[in-house]
Each structure stands twice: as structure tokens, then as C-alpha cells.
């Protein structure tokens, strides 16, 4: 999920860079957090064994990412109530019949502001990442708790051989 958020935010970073403008904080915060979160998620998947052994540390880092995503969503909070599309209907409808078949033009038009829609999607993905990292943090705490409840029994046995040289 972080990868989708990263690609959406990369779109805005590229737009501002190509125009030699400073990228706004609401884009940068969510972009940096999503890049780091994607790298962390890939790293924890690739190192499953050490993730099980250090479940509390991984859970703590997940909670830190929750806080960082909340900060990113907070910076982007103004887009939450924005209306990014406009649906209009004209009274005109045309139907043309020619040798190629029927060509109809619809009186309905949907106009979408791409930048607004992309920011709104990044806002939603940021909220979803908060939820997903919270789920993994709780699961890791249960994993750690389960590992601590095991009882370890160590059995030591000694064998002694005597060699008589008689």
C-alpha cells in the first residue's frame, strides 16, 4: 500500500521539480514517510526470521510509522472536503447514422481535476496505511507474547567412558 502512495506523491514531486518550484510540505511529508514505510515493509518481509525474534522492536517501528502517517495526513487535511469532480448535463443529444454505423454523443459530461483527485487519493492511502500499520503492530505484539509464553526445557546428559589399558 505504501508503494501506491509513493507513486502518487512522486507525481507531485516531479510536477513541482519540473517547474523549478519548491514542493509543499503536505506533499513532502507524505512522500518521505511513504518511501521509508515501503522500504521498512519490504525489509521486514525479507527478514521474517529476525522479525519474529525482535517482534517488539518491529512493532515499535510500526507505531512510529503510524505517527508519521498521521502527521502526513494532518498536513494534507485541507483536501478532505474538496470537491474534485463536476458532473454536468446538457440538453443536447445528437445521433448520427452513416455508413460506419451509429455515432451518438452524450449530453453528460464528467470533469475531473486531476491534481485534486490525486491529492485526495494520497490522503485516503495515508489513512489506510495508518490502519494497516496498526494491524501489523498489534499482530507483532501477539507474536511476541506467544513466544514469551513458551517454556524451555534443557536436558543435559553426560556420558563418561573409561578406558582400561589392562
Summed up:
The chain has 166 residues and is of the alpha+beta class. 61% of the residues lie in helices and 12% in strands. It is elongated, with a radius of gyration of 28 Å.
What's the arrangement of secondary structure elements?
Blueprint: H1 2-18, H2 25-46, H3 48-53, H4 55-75, E1 85-89, E2 94-98, E3 101-105, E4 108-112, H5 114-148
Antiparallel strand pairs: 1-4, 2-3
Structural features, described:
- The chain has a two-stranded antiparallel ribbon with strand order 1-4. Strands 2-3 form a two-stranded antiparallel sheet.
- It is elongated and about 115 Å long.
- It is 61% helix and 12% strand.
- It has five helices and four strands.
- Helix 1 (2-18) packs antiparallel against helix 2 (25-46), helix 1 runs antiparallel to helix 5 and helix 4 packs antiparallel against helix 5 (114-148).
- Overall morphology: elongated
Percent range for β-strand residues: 5-15%
Main sheet makeup: 2 strands, antiparallel
Structural class: alpha+beta
Number of helices: 5
Low-confidence stretches: none
Distance between the termini: 77 Å
Order of helical and strand elements: HHHHEEEEH
Proportion of residues in helical segments: 55-70%
Give the overall pLDDT as a whole number: 79
C-alpha-based Rg, rounded: 28 Å
Amino acid at each position: 500500500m505504501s508503494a501506491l502512495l509513493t507513486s502518487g506523491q512522486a507525481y507531485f514531486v516531479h510536477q513541482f521539480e519540473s517547474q523549478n518550484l519548491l514542493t509543499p510540505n503536505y506533499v513532502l511529508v507524505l512522500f518521505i514517510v511513504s518511501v521509508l514505510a515501503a522500504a521498512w515493509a519490504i525489509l521486514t518481509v525479507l527478514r521474517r526470521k529476525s522479525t519474529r525474534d525482535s517482534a517488539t522492536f518491529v512493532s515499535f517501528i510500526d507505531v512510529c510509522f503510524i505517527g508519521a502517517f498521521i502527521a502526513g495526513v494532518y498536513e494534507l487535511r485541507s483536501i478532505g472536503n474538496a470537491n474534485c469532480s463536476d458532473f454536468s448535463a446538457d440538453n443536447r443529444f445528437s445521433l448520427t447514422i452513416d455508413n460506419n454505423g451509429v455515432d451518438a454523443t452524450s449530453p453528460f459530461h464528467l470533469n475531473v481535476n486531476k491534481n485534486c483527485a490525486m491529492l485526495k487519493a494520497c490522503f485516503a492511502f495515508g489513512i489506510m496505511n495508518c490502519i494497516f500499520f496498526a494491524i501489523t503492530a498489534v499482530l507483532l505484539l501477539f507474536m511476541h507474547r506467544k513466544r514469551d509464553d513458551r517454556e524451555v526445557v534443557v536436558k543435559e546428559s553426560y556420558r563418561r567412558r573409561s578406558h582400561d589399558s589392562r
